[in-house]
Write the structure tokens for this entry.
Amino acid sequence: KKPKVEEDVSTLMDAAEERINVIGKNGNDGEHYEKLKPVEAPEPVKKVKERDLPTEVKEEWVALFSGSGKEIVDTVERLGFWPGMIITNNHLTSSWDEDLVKREAAVTDKKKKNVRTVNVTQSKTANFIHRYARCKESKVTLHNWNKDIPDTITSAYDIVEGAPTFAVVSIPSNDININELETTPPVTTPPVTAPVVDLTPVARQSPIGESPAKSKRWIAMFSQSGSEIANLAEALGYWPDVIVTNNSDKSKWDERVLKRNKQGEHTDLFKVVVVTSEQAKTANFLHKIEGSKNALVTLHGWLRIIPAEICSLYKIVNGHPSLINQYPELKGKDPQLRWWADRDKYDKWYGSVVHDVVAEVDAGQIHAVNKRQLTSYEEMDCNPFDLFRQTSLNSWLKYFVKFPIR
């Protein structure tokens, strides 16, 4: 026999279980009760089946889009291969098609990623096609591209709206009666060949000591690779008259700067001037460059402070990779890392400016600003220096539009 306490607990539990299984209409004892109706489980959410997209790439296909890129992905699924290069002027990666984003995220080597973004100026000129098209036979397709392609580009490449058409050679079957074929020889027309386009920005045709009419001489200075100067030259369509560097290690130079310097050795039209550390500190070398008094001097990662007396003699502007117009604490060297560490403090807004060079570091008048807000997709796998590289180029382009020298 159970002890008294256990018996009372057992009785209470039985009563509670019975009470749980019924519900009163008005909650009063003695009223009619009815059993709880079982709650039907919700239907499981059907998962959208992922598309089985191909991995093959067609190198001679270049695709351009301005929206999400979904049309390209649909075309890929239909054709069975990806474009060798995808170009977009939509920098908001969060608005890209999900499959396109996944494909890019899966590629760890940045050099092998085949989606490239271009700025507004590049979109208008479409000169980037010269760089990314593998050959003159490349097929360039437009998918909701929101800019008109200039005639100089359309005449050089096969550009169409939508899916590309690649030539397919068909072999006649053996059951064709040769006697029934047309005996008149076909009319042949000579093939139309696209003109060869020189990919190098327009070279100056005068010696360094001379300057064409209606143009201002441009002297650009760098301390690291000079890649920003090369990118800017490609976007503008012309190179600086003189490039100065205090980096004597040519293995660290951008290959385009190296190529340009090599051309100068043979033609005397252009050459990179290498200065010593002492010369870089004083910047007195500017006195020896002909025409420098009225020239525009631009600094691109120049890691030396320009003395006050030099600032007063020349028109010098500098590109700074931070919004010092809003956040003056980001003045000085490598602000990208300081911004990245406190990006939430700045609500993830970042950008670059172009300002006059004066005696006080990063204190000159600001002439051009380019700003963006970091997206969650960019934040997942991001090098802060890469982020500011694009805003720096954009701010320089804004400056040259505002103060043209050609």
DSSP finds 13 helices and 14 strands in the chain. The two ends are 108 Å apart (CA to CA).
